[in-house]
Amino acid sequence: MPWRHRSQCPLLVYGLLGCALLTTKVYGGSGDPPGSRRALSEELFLSYEPLTTVTDDAAIDLDQHALDVQMSLGTDQSREAAYKIYTQGAFSKSYALLSLQSPLPISLAKGTTLLGHTTNGKEVLGQLLEETPPGSTTLKFRYHPSPIQDTWTNCHVGGNPTPNTEGCLVGLGQIEIDELGSFDYEYEILEDNYNARTIQSFSTKAKEKMYDCNEGCPYSVYKKFYNYYGVHDYADQWVQAAFQRTSTNFTRGNAQFGGTYKTDLGYRQAITLGTVYLNTWMYIIREMDHSSAMCSAKGPCNNHLDIFSGTEDEYHGPPLVAGQECNNDDMMHAWDKAVAFYVGSKAKTAGQGGHLLFSMAQERCLNFGTCGPSQHYGLMARVNFEMMQSFRQGQEALKMRACSSLKRHVRLLTAYMTVPLVQGVILYARENELLLAKSNREKQEQSQATGATYAAALLPLLHACNKEDANIVYESMRVGRGVTPHFSKVKAALERNYYCLGITCELVGGIVDPAGVNGKYLLGAEPCKDPSHHSPLDLFFRDNQSGNTGPNIALVICFSVVLVVLMILFSVFIGRSHACATDKEFDGPASSATKFQDGNGELMEEESPVSLEMA
């Protein structure tokens, strides 16, 4: 269709005006789409601002810390205390099991508001932990978490070796049930206060939440672990075997804890690292997968359809209703929980504090020269910087139900979380080899168990890439007698699979020489060199490492609009001396995309940075 002077010359103005309107549409009003309902009092997880209350979830790091402390004491009593923390919990999702003096007349829904009092007469707000049928004479009173992390709840009993009962319900009293009235109850404060979330439950509930769930199951990453180990609760079985000093019974990757270690240090490392890298690591990915699955199941909604005309994402859900609003609370809560489980409640400053994966990644970046200072990362590990940015971008994608974009961020985040595992295996493969010639048994066992635990968290991913390389790593790093470590073989086996794992040599780095000899890195432990064809996932995050706090989809679209307009004007004006008065037709360039297989074994399209951001 021909364009004449009157319509050609204002094109750029119209394009910029359209950009302004689009930006207003995406970010106008409160800045949050319907359903987000951001609470201004939610605390930051470093640079990430949750839109739901997850202080109770973040407190799981206090369980981890308490377990670490008890294991470090090295006595039979302290090991028993650590086991109780692992199996019974202490600080996260506290609830009281109350015995009612009269049965419930009706069924009560999960989340029903409850109100009670402490021994000091202070009000205690709670919710019903689970649906309770009529006629029940017991109910589970979950203590309502505050959005302030330092005061999230004030009743911490369960397996806590030093119980805090200040904010617990009084032993004999009344509770108010929303729209139902008062009920007399009784319970034992030190015996009937429990925790619905434990580190153990991250693994024991894996089959239910990662394999048999209704939306998106089985989750692809978890399935690799199930296929490798042959059991659903592999993480719990690892930790249990280390506590009991017995052997695991996996299909592959067995650990012979029975009689292997003569000192306590080996078992301690297998337990305290296993709870983080096996139990918690997988559950973080579960929360991200769960959020992504809910997004895909619910599909686009009104503000998303207005922007993308309903064509974005491979949507196969129920028929869309005109004007359908975005209610993202459930999926946003799952995403926020993933961040809470990654960072925890104590990692307040970049590079300092904490007891979960964020803090452990900080430790490894010091060994491998992959943390600050730099203009982008500061004191933060490179993978942590990328993680926090991708968490924020995923949150923005969720706001608009950009489910394909969210799925890409889940894959990116999984790849980033793999980097410290690889670093740990490389570091302790070398350490194990060096310690062979020394007689310090405690250090040998500590190093061997540490490396074996890192390997246990990585082997299923590596096995899905290359079975032979996974076996090389296992035979050099396994828990058991007669193991001969081969550092160079392990390092080479891992590096051959970086592309499949979605990571790069640059992300992993090399083992830094602490004495400054042989240059920056230890001889033989230098970083490998990335091939010219980087991982497509790596290309994606390189295009986003400018420090933006979100995907800025509107800005990308605006840039694209302006660029197209400029191309039109250029094509109109370049060949003619009187362009504004000359007819001209323009055909946009055909889009191109190359398909590749990502680290999850799924086909994706490698697109330009702009199209990736828009997806």
From TrEMBL:
TM region(s), chain numbering: 553-574
PROSITE patterns to which the protein is assigned, alphabetical: PROKAR_LIPOPROTEIN
Record keywords: Membrane, Signal, Transmembrane, Transmembrane helix
Region annotation Disordered: where it falls in the sequence: 585-615
Signal peptide (residue range): 1-28
Protein name, entry field: Uncharacterized protein
